[in-house]
Amino acid sequence: MTFGQLPYDVAHLLGGGMLLISFVLLYQRRVGAVINALALQGVLLACAAAWQGHVQSAPQLYLTALIALGAKAVLIPLALRTLLRRLDLHRTVETALGVGPSLVAGVALVALAILVVLPITAGNRAIAREDLALALSVVLLGMLMMITRRNAILQVVGLMTLENGLILAAVGVAGMPLVVELSTAALVMVLLVVGGVFVFQIRERFDTVDIGFLERHRGESG
Amino acid sequence: MLTALTLCLGLLVLLAAAAVALGRSPRAGAIVHGGCLVASLGFAAVALAALLGAPAEPLTLPFGPPWAAARIGLDGLSAWFLLLLGLTGGAASLFALGHPPGPARTLPPFPLFLAGMALTLAATDAFLLLFGFELMSLASWALVAADHEKAENRAAARLYLGFAVLAAACLIPAFGLLAGHAGALDFAAMRAAPPEGWQAAAVLALGLAGAGAKAGLVPLHVWLPLAHPAAPSHVSALMSGAMTKVALYVLARLLLDLCGAAQPSWWGVPLLVVGAVSAVLGALRANLEDDAKTLLACSTIENVGLIVLGLGLALAFRGADLGPLATLAAGAALLHALNHGVFKTGLFLVAGAVLHSAGSRRLDRLGGLIHAMPVTAGAALVGACAAASLPPLSGFAGEWLLLQSVLAGWRVSDIAFQVLAAAAAALAAMAAALAAAAMLRMFGLVFLGRPRTPRGAGAHEVSAIERAALLLPAGLTVLFGLFPGLLLSLAAPALTVLTGRPAELPPGLWLTAGEGASGYAPLAVFLLLAAVLVAVFFLVRRRSPAATQRGPVWNCGFIDPPSHLLPFGDPLTQPTAGGIAQPLRRMLGESLLAAHEAVDMPRPGETRAATHRAGFRDPAFALLLAPAAALRERLSIQAERLRDFTIRRCLSLSFATLVGLLALLAWIEAR
Q1: Which residues on chain B are in Cβ contact (under 8 Å) with A150?
Q2: Which of A220, A222, B54, B336 is deepest in the core (most CB within 10 A)?
Q3: Which residue in A203, A130, A117, A156 sits closest to A25, CA to CA?
Q4: Which residues are listed as membrane-spanning (chain B) (predicted)?
Q5: How many angstroms away from the CA of A82 is the closest CA of chain B?
Q6: Which residues are within 8 A (CB) of B576 and not within 5 positions of it... i.e. 6 or more apart?
Q7: Does the ipTM surpass 0.90?
């Protein structure tokens, strides 16, 4: 399966779309727009999973797509939005690394992911190779987002992107059991709850969600 | 045959489990040590069968690491060391059987310790060998730390664990380099692809440091004089007699066997230098220590040094294409390893018997025990004479062969090596003389003279089983001493492994060196000595006009003390451990061991007593341990800064690590 064949091209398109949205996440300056982009990435993930289910004739992947659509495209963005509105949080993105350098670092990470994955998987099925490189890029960009943003909600978004990348990798491999996706989705839900509790705690105690504020209250550093 | 070996190993593991289950039951000690005795004798029998018969096919066990089933096998070299393990393990287990039971926590590690050593010897791949080696290290650490109420024992156990970790940190990369070069973990593949260039040099350095840290080679010997006294006596016997030899087996296997026979002649030089320095430093320290077990541990350093000297010579001769001389040097090393293992086990068991019976290990609190413990004293005399390398006992045979091979060092055409070999010969001879002085001092202070304390005067002979355990190594020492030629021909398969060529040994009961120019016939020496002794005895008895009379001991001119205060005489009239050590401390200790003494004389009119302080410090403490401690301090301060990192910086750290690893992977793929 190579370029020019429909199953490959569509999978490639959807994976590339997810990667593109990871970049979009990096340059947004408003928290609301970040959440919208995250929801869009969830939709694309659902499409990718459904397409893989169609190509591999694996009906369980439709379930995965459904879970992705429900949880990642609808429920979690809604929850985050509610959180944002109810708590009246800052709507601007507070960065530790500027938008321009973040994008440059992101491009470098994508190059690294391609350099790592393509030679290692040489000789495997083409569809898994390209998908794996895209998925690794999405994972790395999610981690980059977690460390370059100060806002706790944006860190949760970075974690979600990371999980999206993992699931993209999982659905690209034929014969991956469903259990993995289900548990991953559950894990993300749990993580979101933890993140929500974390945000509420900060809000209650210190009246801000800037984690930089938290560092002064750890006790060790005075 | 290997099935029997596997059964013995399984028995030991079962015993360890049973020891946990039995707990504090009064029969637990008897069951565990009895089982260990059976397993040890099994090891010795299997090893003898392997040495006498043809080497057996390796046996594939039904379990093992995930990538391959474990395979155990015995070639000449491992069988030789397994024989040593069986003999020393048997004597130590027998002694423990008769000894009053120690704390229950010493029971489970003891079979594991034996099993770890046997597994190391029986391994046919690097993974199993390192697994056994680490099992041996951890089990013996648990035994060293058994008596952990005392602070010095805790410190000794900590130091011991540190050196065990160092040994692992050196040996694992050494085997890894070989395995990476060969592409497989088993010995046959490694042998087929000997390392070259910097890899070979790295294997040499890492192997010498890793095995040397476990065997107690200078400068990695500091744990040995601290850990051996901390362990129970039968364990310290096994540690000194067998464990250091297992480390030497790993050294020989790694450098002489797995690295191939084509390594250059200079490979022997590091071993030669380290061995000679260890021999002298160990023997000198043995003369200055005033604790019996510490003294014996220092003597172990000396003997390990001599064995490594022999291995280094074998490497050098093999590299210079001097096959017969390589066989001679390797034979000396193997013979001395076995002999030292046996007589040092006996000596440590004697120290344990004395500790139990007379209540102390300190030479200054013992004395005159030959009257109360005649059998123990006899065993100690045999062991001490062997350690002092007196003919016709076993210690002499190995050291004689070793000196013969050192003296043949001029046959290597390199002038620098000739000079080194001459220096090594001088140092080895000096070490032998110093060891003789140390053994004389130990035997004289512990067994001769009069008791120095009331507790020492109340000593009694140990139980019959313990006496048997003492007589077993003593008897073997005499036997091995009388028939070294037979023993050496038994070692022929091991010599073939070490030198890479079929060993041509002159047949016969005695030893010959070189082209038969010099020889040593212990049986003749023994007969000659016996004849002279009998003649002297006969003459004295016949010529003496009157019957033998026992008189009071001459008091060196001191006035007899009041007998109700000091029934054993004034202790001041007897020589002390420090007093006998003084000449050597002043002569050699001041330059080599930073020995110091100071007299504090009260001014006229003051009523306090004058004091004389003397002591020494091992240079390895200042040169090796102090910088290591400072480095650890600096590293921990750096690591402490990580605790103050923010969440984001912690995440960045792991992210940077991940990206770095991915970049490394990409770089490797691109090459």
Answers
A1: 648
A2: B336
A3: A156
A4: 31-56, 77-98, 110-133, 159-180, 200-223, 267-288, 295-317, 337-356, 368-390, 415-448, 469-499, 519-540, 650-668
A5: 25
A6: B364
A7: no
